[in-house]
Structure formats: structure tokens, C-alpha cells
Amino acid sequence: LSLFHQEVVSEESEEESNGVNLMEFSDEILLHILSYVPCTDLVLNVRRTCRKLATLCLDKSLTHTVLLQKDYKVNKDKVKQLMRDIGKEIYQLNMAGCYWLPSSTIDHVTRCKNLVKLNLSGCHVTSLRLSKMLSTLQHLRSLAIDVNPGFDASQLSSECKATLSRVSELKQTLYTPSYGVVPCCTSLEKLLLYFEILDRSREGFMLSGQLMVGESNVPHYQNLRIFYARLAPGYVNQEVVRLYLAVLSDRTPENLHAFLISAPGSFAETGATKNLLDSMARNVRLDALQLPKAWINGSGLLQHLKFNNPFYFSFSRCTLSGGHLIQRVINGGKDLKSLTSLNLSGCVHCLAPESLFRKAEDDIDSSILESLVVSCCNLRHLNLSAAHHHSSESIGNHLCQLLSRLKHLLSLALPVCSITDVGASVEKPPTTPNLVPQTFGRKVRIGIQTYPRNLGDQTNQKIESSVFWALMGSLRFLETLEIIGSSFSSAMPRNEPAIRNSLPPCVRAQSVGDSEVAAISQLTYLQSLTLAQLPNILTGSGLVNIGLQCQHLRTLSLANLGMMGKVVYMSALMDMLKHCKCLRDLRLEQPYFCAGAQFFQALSHCSSLQRLCIVSRSGTLQSDAVMSFMASCLEVIMCHMFMGESLTVCKNLQQSIVRSFQAERPALNVVIFPLLHEDLTEVIRDVPMRHLDEITLFKSRVAEEPPNLWW
């Protein structure tokens, strides 16, 4: 924005400067540049700088689609002015996750008479407000909303229901047992359901999965093409989703081509769901499939399902063997060039011919992986995490060598034990013990750097000959990488108390450390990086290489690196952060982490940082350092810290941050709380879903959903 102001002012004195004047560019080039500026800035600020920009900023290419979902500086007044100025020109409006805006803000959406797509997920919308708004949006075809406690479908007007009857795409997040607006949407082709219903109320009462009185209307699925349901942990979510599926089991839509249900834990198959799957096997050909593990394990379902041109498969946490994967899904090496996304997370036997007598730690069958790579040569997203994928000593058949053939990969998730060189893991004992008794942990000194400044200083001169180094070199366009220990579990589960003990890393992972991290620095276009449970991190020197070379890095998540008794990589991390100018999200999970003045001073170099989450058992923080950091990093709107400090210290710091910065940062969300406190789950339930799902809770996100599931 300031660049435009400077250039416009310089128009009057061009002879004083040899620089290029932006206003001399063609309209096409200027429109392309302006497309990177938030719409609120374009309409409310930039267009007031000169006549030319006043015209360009209102071009249809810039006002057709308005994205406010991560415009954390937008407030009610800005939204009101924006709708007043260009409301009639807006055809697509995305306000997803604008949790800080008061519910009255939604009233201004009624000015957008031509809206076709509207996303209000994460916004506060009552039944009456929804009814009033939808009554005026006669052209609406795509809608995303939340259904909160108190939602009453009987309050929806006939005009509102008429609008809903024309909606073909619906995304609905449920926080209470309800059909929401689904029964009103008689023309549905795409239905996305997110079940976030808790088993207990705030008062501690057990909730029922039965729908509220007046919720007996039946959903209309006859035109459905895509059905997607994602369940948070809890039995109530399972009860409610069964009610949605009951209608599908009676009559399967003929045009159904994507059927996806993501359910954690055990979600038992019933007679109704079995009838549904049998009907699907007889009547439809699918392009995308994801089912609960209990529905696949031990059944011959995959042998009977028919596929057309599949683009997404997820067999997460299933006991599917590699033999079944090749025979029933890939059809013995069938050409699956259409498949772009594959999730095999937690599928421990997927690279072995059979699972009956196999141990999870046994070597993989490289021929199965080779068949997968050859058949699915256009894969862009692949998740092999949460399993022990150990390569044999056969030359040329290492997992990393085979994966290097997938030249189109954009995101990849691997277990730590899968990237080690076989010889190194067998011959080289762990350099340092990875487990230290927690009670004897000591804080690390962070004043002097003790790691090699350059890669050439590493004692291991064979880094560049490793199979993982070669893999990173072959995937130059990779944007997302996750390297996660096969036995890693976060200290912060969703609806349970914090975990106090973690399982030891896999034996094959003991040699994975600084040199492997340094290999990641070859990924020039890397935007998101997750590293968890790398036991042989000694200094963290590879992090510095990443900071220097991966200048597009926006999201960084580090967990349980090196020894568990102290933070051995602190000095390197601070040096790395000084180079991360584009970093927006940082998540750190490490016991005994000291969030002190030097750490926050280094973090202050990340001028683009918006969200910070630190999870540390027995970790400490310095309140003054946190306040100084918040004052210097003006873009930070989320600060979550779950440490070992007392409740009093945490509450005082949280109140100080809110009191000092809430007024100028409307989206500010601060949670500072003792990690092992018994009320942690109650605190977590108040965190906005956007932050909880994207950063606060640890999980593998590669191929978690089909690509472009929602806009």
C-alpha cells in the first residue's frame, strides 16, 4: 500500500528520480499487481490515491471475488463500507474464520444482491440473521455456515427456504446435534459436513446425539455428487452422522462420485452403513474415496467398488496390506494417472504383500512401492506418515529412491525412520541418548553458538550422497514437507488431558539428525515444514541452512527434536528465525523450552509472523519479553502458549496482552495456560476453530482432504 502512495507522489517529480513509475505500466500489469492487495485496502485506501487507480481498483476482475478470511485487520466498519461501495459487484464472498466480527456484521451482506458463493464458516450467525440475509440472495448457489446451539430451522422464512432450495453446494459445521439447513437444500450436489459436537456440555452434562424437536425433516440427496463428513473425536458426532447417512442407505444417488468419511478412532459399521456400501458397489463409479478403518478392515469392499477416474484415495489408519492395495485399488498395476492425492497415513502394512504374520517394523516390499509409483505417476500429494516404512539393503530399492520418480509432488509426509540410509541405521549407534529422565532436565544456555556455521564444517562429509539428500534434490517444486516420528504423539490431544509421557522413537530413526535437516534446504519453493521426533539433532545446524535457502517458508512446526531433557537446537533456531522474513505461522513443541528475551528478540525478525503456538512441558517464559515481542511484531494476532508456569503467571500475562493490543488488533486471540492443568480441555474448546485446526493442534495435514474440496 505504501508503495502505491510513494509512486503516485513521485509522478509529480519524475525528473528527480531514475526509478520506474508504476503508473506507466499497462492496465493489465497494474491489475495483476493489484490482485495481490487485500480488497479492503484496494477499495478503502488505494483507489483514493489517483484517478487511474480509482478506476482500476473497481475493475470487475478485482471486485468479483472478495476474500476476507485471513484479513485480520478488517473490522465491522470496514466491512460495512466495503459492502456499501462494491456490494453489487461482489459475486463470491469468503468471510470464513472471521470470528472477531460481531454477528451484526452479517447484516451488511444483504447489499451483495448478486452473490453466488458465500462462506461464513466460523462467523457468528443466528437463525434469524441467516433467514434475513438469505431471503435477499436469490442468486446464491454455494453456502458455508456454522450451526451452533440455539439454531432453530423453524425461524427460517419462506423466502430464505426458497434461496436454500436453489443452493447446490453446502458446507456445514455442526456444534450441536442438528440437520441445520440440509433439509431445505433440495438441489444439493455437494455436501460437506464437519462434526464438532462435544460429548459434554460446559456444565458437565452428557449430550445426546438425538436431533432436537422439529428436526425430523429428511435431507434430499437425489442429486448428490460429493458427500464429505469429517468427525472430531466423540460418540455424539458418530451418532449424528449416522442420521445423515440413514437417508443415503435407503437410496444411493446415481451421480455420486465422491464419498468421504474421516473419523478418528473406532467408528463401527452397522447394518445401514453396510447396505449403503453394498448399494454403492452396485450402482456408482467413484472418483474419490475415504472410509473409517472399521468399514474397510477385514472386508472385501474394495474388491467390489468401481472407480472411474479417481483423483483422491485415503486409507488412513487402515490395516490394508500392500497386496490388497495393488490388486483391489490399483488393479494389479492399472494406469492411475488421474490420481493426484493419496493418504496412507497410519496404514502400517500398505507397503507389504500381506499383514497376517508381519510385524509393523519389518522391511517393506519395494516392488509394491514401485508399482504404486509407476501407476500413480502424477501424484501431487502423498502421505506415508505414522508407520514404520523400513527399506531393505537392496541397492536402488530404497523408499527415497523410488519416491524421487514422482516429479509432480507438491506435498509429502514421511516417517522419520523411512529416510535413513540403511547402512547408517544399522552400523551407526545413536550418538547421544535420546531419552533423559524428565526430572533431571536442565535448561540450555543460549548465549554462544555451538553449531557449525557452514555445511562444509559438518563432520559427516557424506551428506550429499545420502538417499534423502538425493530425494530432496529431485523434488525441487515441493511446497509442503512433513517428517514425523512414527511413534510421535503431541502433548496436546483434542479432548483429553495433556500427555505426560511419550513413546521412544523407532530404532531406525536414531541416526536421523542435523544432516538430514540440512538436506531440506534444497527445497527452494518450500512453504510449509513440519519436523517431529528427530532424535539425533545435536545442534540444529540444518535449520540455519533452511532459513537461508527456503525464503518462501510460511509455516514452521518443530516438535521433540534431539534430546528430550533440554533444547539443544535453541541457538540454531534463533539464527534461523532471523532469515525467515515470510514466516507467518510458528509452532514449537519441546519440553523445557525457555521462551526468554533472546528467543523473542530473534523471533522479532519475522516481520510477517501472524500466529505463534508454543507447547512445552516444564517450559518457562518471560512475561516482559513476550510483551516486547507483541509490541514489535505488529502482525501477530494469535499467541498460544501452554507451558509449565503457574496459572497466576499465565492469566496475568494473557490479560496484559489483551488489554494492551486488543483495540488495535481486532482479531487478537490469546491463550496462555499451564499445559498440565486439569481445565486445559475447557480452555481449548473456546479457541476459534481456524486456529485450533490449522496450528494449535498437531496433526499431519498432507492429503488430509481432497485438493480444492472447497474454495
Automatic annotation (TrEMBL):
Originating gene: Fbxl18
GO cellular component: SCF ubiquitin ligase complex
Matches recorded under PANTHER family: F-BOX AND LEUCINE-RICH REPEAT PROTEIN 18, F-BOX/TPR REPEAT PROTEIN POF3
GO BP: any one term: SCF-dependent proteasomal ubiquitin-dependent protein catabolic process
PROSITE patterns xrefs: FBOX (PS50181)
Protein name per its UniProtKB record: FXL18 protein
Domain F-box: 19-66
Pfam short name (any one): F-box-like
InterPro entries, alphabetized: F-box-like_dom_sf (IPR036047), F-box_dom (IPR001810), FBXL18_F-box (IPR047948), FBXL18_LRR (IPR045627), LRR_dom_sf (IPR032675)
